[in-house]
Amino acid sequence: MDEHGGGGCGGGLRRVVVVGGGIAGSLLAKSLQFFANVTLIDPKEYLEIPYGSLRSTVEPSFAERSLIKHSEYFSNGRLITSPAVDITESQVLVADGRHVDFDFLVVATGHDHPLPTTRDHRLQHYREENERIREANSILIVGGGPSGVELAGEIVTDFRDKAITLVHDGPRLLEFMGPKASDKALKWLVSRRVAVKLDQKIDLNNVSEGTKTFGSSKGETIRADCHFVCTGQPVGSAWLHKTMLKINLDRHGRLMVDGTLRVKGRNNVFAIGDITDIRESKQGESAKRQAKVAAKNMKMIMVGKESKMESYRPPSSTTAIVSLGRKQAVAQFSLTTIAGTLPGFIKSRDLFVGKARKHLGLHPTFVDSF
């Protein structure tokens, strides 16, 4: 296929370029691959199901299912393994020098979280992280959001002899959920001898891989053999500030979209996933729903039925489940908040990885060998 995207899967089909191979981008590419001439641009050769990453840190074999080569589900399109660096009215410029033509563009770059390019290297990274945990007697986790709480739960479940300290700069854990969920998560961690320190920050400016002494904003000195930073990642839009879409970014760096998930003021550019300015909890289920709506709307435009496009509606209530180890979790529903084995049964055993694989048309548990 030539570098301008003229050949390939269906010469008469509309050209769709999807930038970003996370949950949202991968599902949309899969949905449209037999309906349009789709090019998926991603810096890496695989999709990582993000909600499996913390389990993979303590159980590297879990990553065999949560790391999926794009070629497994995206068989009828073109994959470019290189970052996008610029956008014009009709092309995406890729770091490797290619210019990819589009009729429709979908930006789904999520959060800026640099990862190894190959699946094998990512698997090796998890093995190395696991070895760090095994060799450590004491572990510091910085950040008390869902990632920090879930990582603490995973480590304390598999390595009960480790001294774990979790430091959070807010007044309570899991601030995206209600106070009841925060309290239940705190009690669970404390009952398992995790030292939780709230309203404190760790100075990470001079921290390196071998650092074992950490200073807090309250003057405390915390000693740990290894540490993990779970404070979230910036929105993956830094590259857009140099493109035509810079005027479509809000002050937080998110793309402003209308109800149909088109970037405001642009008829052929869509945005889905964490990079949008939609006011909702940025969760995997939301990314899946947005991918479904955007795919349907592009199909409607392509067949001349724009009037039948669907509007994306964020969920009216916040439902969230945060795992606490392998068998327990804390869950917030519209009418109640619970913790224990029931929400753990819903999420913690598999972390929805099997469900995500099924959405991609893959077996939930069986993994092809490469």
Report on the structure:
Residues 15-285 form the FAD/NAD(P)-binding domain. It comes from Cucurbita maxima. This is Apoptosis-inducing factor 2-like. Keywords: FAD, Flavoprotein, Oxidoreductase. GO terms for molecular function: electron-transferring-flavoprotein dehydrogenase activity; flavin adenine dinucleotide binding. With 370 residues, this protein is α/β, with parallel strands linked by helices. The chain folds into two domains: 15-43 and 82-113 and 233-311, FAD/NAD(P)-binding domain (3-Layer(bba) Sandwich), CATH 3.50.50.60; 119-232 and 318-348, FAD/NAD(P)-binding domain (3-Layer(bba) Sandwich). Helices cover 27% and strands 21% of the residues. The protein has ten helices and 19 strands. The strands form six sheets. The chain has a five-stranded parallel beta sheet with strand order 5-2-1-9-16, with helices on one face. It has a four-stranded parallel beta sheet with strand order 12-11-10-15. Strand 17 (320-324) and strand 18 form a beta hairpin. It starts with 14 loop residues before the first strand and ends in an 11-residue tail after the last helix.
